[in-house]
Automatic annotation (TrEMBL):
The protein's name in its UniProt record: Putative TetR family transcriptional regulator
Keywords: DNA-binding, Transcription, Transcription regulation
Gene3D superfamilies per UniProt: Homeodomain-like (1.10.10.60), Tetracycline Repressor, domain 2 (1.10.357.10)
InterPro entries in the cross-refs: Homeodomain-like_sf, HTH-type_TetR-like_transc_reg, HTH_TetR, Tet_transcr_reg_TetR-rel_C_sf
Transmembrane segments: none
GO MF term list: DNA-binding transcription factor activity; transcription cis-regulatory region binding
Keyword Chaperone in annotation: no
SUPFAM superfamilies linked to this entry: Homeodomain-like (SSF46689), Tetracyclin repressor-like, C-terminal domain (SSF48498)
Highest taxon of source: Bacteria
Domain HTH tetR-type: 11-71
DNA-binding positions: 34-53
Length: 194
């Protein structure tokens, strides 16, 4: 008779594997890895990986989603600590920069080249733009920001976010991602302040 499985252990183990996968992918990218290589690096079997996803592509997508969920939690925690709408936008954009600061150029290149992961990234950018719009609307409603077209300001921020995340801003200006997000926060909040 086998011992009953501990669902909490299974959940913790699954989360641990995604965290280890994410750390590996953020540092090295993912395109060059095979499932055998991933299993070897994580010191688990391929069958264990198949409990996470049915294929390497699905594993990459699931890990990418894990990255964005974790980043969203960190970003929203930073926003929760801010008092004013201006501070919230600054905290939001700086926290996004911090979250992406751990992503290597190899990861960002692989992310851009792999459609399922790129789609998760694009969805996250749309969500981020909507969140920036909410923060702008909050500032307009409280009189801290002038009455701006919030959708346009959020779209402008989202466009800059995509350029930062794709490395275009770094190539054009030399600013790293965190610095670029700080500059975006400063420009955006100064441009809409009452």
């Amino acid at each position: 008779m086998s011992a009953p499985t501990d669902p909490d252990f299974a959940t913790r183990r699954r989360s641990q594997l995604f965290d280890e996968l994410l750390a590996m992918f953020l540092e090295e990218g993912f395109a060059h890895f095979t499932l055998d290589a991933i299993a070897g690096r994580l010191r688990c079997s391929k069958s264990t990986l198949y409990t996470l996803a049915a294929s390497k592509g699905e594993l990459v997508r699931a890990t990418t989603i894990h990255f964005f969920r974790r980043a969203t939690d960190d970003v929203e925690a930073a926003v929760a600590e801010a008092a004013s709408p201006r501070e919230k936008i600054t905290a939001y954009l700086e926290a996004v920069g911090d979250a992406l600061g751990g992503a290597s150029p190899a990861f960002m290149t692989d992310l851009a080249a792999f459609a399922p992961a790129r789609e998760a990234y694009e969805q996250n950018t749309r969500i981020a733009a909507a969140r920036v719009r909410e923060l702008i609307d909050e500032g307009v409603a409280t009189g801290q920001f002038r009455d701006v077209h919030a959708a346009f300001a959020a779209d402008l921020a989202a466009t800059a976010m995509v350029r930062i995340q794709q490395g275009d801003v770094r190539a054009a200006t030399g600013l790293d991602d965190a610095g670029a997000y700080r500059e975006l926060a400063a420009l955006l909040t100064a441009g809409i302040s009452a």
